[in-house]
Design goal:
Strand order of the largest sheet: 2-1-3-4
Number of domains: 2
Oligomer: single chain
Distance between the termini: 25 Å
Radius of gyration: 17 Å
Largest sheet: 4 strands, mixed
Strand content: 5-15%
Helix content: 40-55%
Shape: globular
């Protein structure tokens, strides 16, 4: 299999962490790209018409995107995601919440990085920041319910927190969230997290 990724993408990092946790990293060749949000990448567009990463190319040539689909494919034996019932939907809900926090924070990041300061839309920045912070506040309340068994939801939360601290698009996210960051500071020491830390 081949994985199109960039080291700074939290969605690609999620896939890489899942692959390592499942012991599949040796079965995946990684192809590093540096796509931008302002122009489609020709190579990436050939495997994903949305020109977004990550993309996993299966041995039969089928392209899978984006990260929730790829993670589901890799976890075919339900080692990281429960197969059914309330636990499954709790795990998937945590993935959706984490992805939503990232979506909002990435919009804030690009607004600040891609547009001149005098053209920043303050209401947009404030609204997206509020959404991301509301998600983080929910994680602070829910982290005590995380089980001792590592699952996809926890991976998604850890990758999200890692990207938020890497890019600092929301400013200080630790204040007022001691339980969440006590959990994260332990989780981030897992070998899969260490091996996939983002670098510019």
């Amino acid at each position: 299999m081949k994985l199109y990724f960039t080291e700074t993408s939290p969605f690609a990092r999620k896939v890489r962490v899942v692959a390592i946790e499942l012991g599949l990293e040796d079965q995946i060749e990684t192809i590093h790209l540096r796509p931008t949000p302002t122009k489609a990448d020709a190579e990436l567009s050939r495997v994903n018409p949305l020109s977004k990463i990550p993309v996993l190319i299966l041995d039969d040539g089928l392209s899978l995107y984006d990260s929730p689909v790829i993670c589901e494919y890799l976890d075919a034996e339900y080692k990281l995601t429960p197969a059914r019932g309330p636990d499954r939907f709790s795990c998937l809900r945590l993935q959706a919440l984490s992805d939503g926090i990232l979506d909002a924070a990435i919009l804030v990041f690009y607004e600040r990085v891609q547009r001149p300061k005098e053209l920043h839309l303050d209401a947009w920045l404030s609204g997206q920041t509020d959404k991301a912070n509301q998600g983080l506040d929910l994680l602070e309340r829910d982290v005590a319910q995380f089980g001792s068994r590592i699952d996809l939801g926890q991976i998604c939360v850890a990758v999200t927190l890692g990207w938020l601290e890497f890019r600092a698009s929301l400013g200080d996210i630790r204040s007022g969230r001691p339980m969440l960051f006590a959990w994260y500071d332990a989780f981030r020491n897992r070998p899969a997290m260490k091996a996939t830390e983002p670098r510019v």
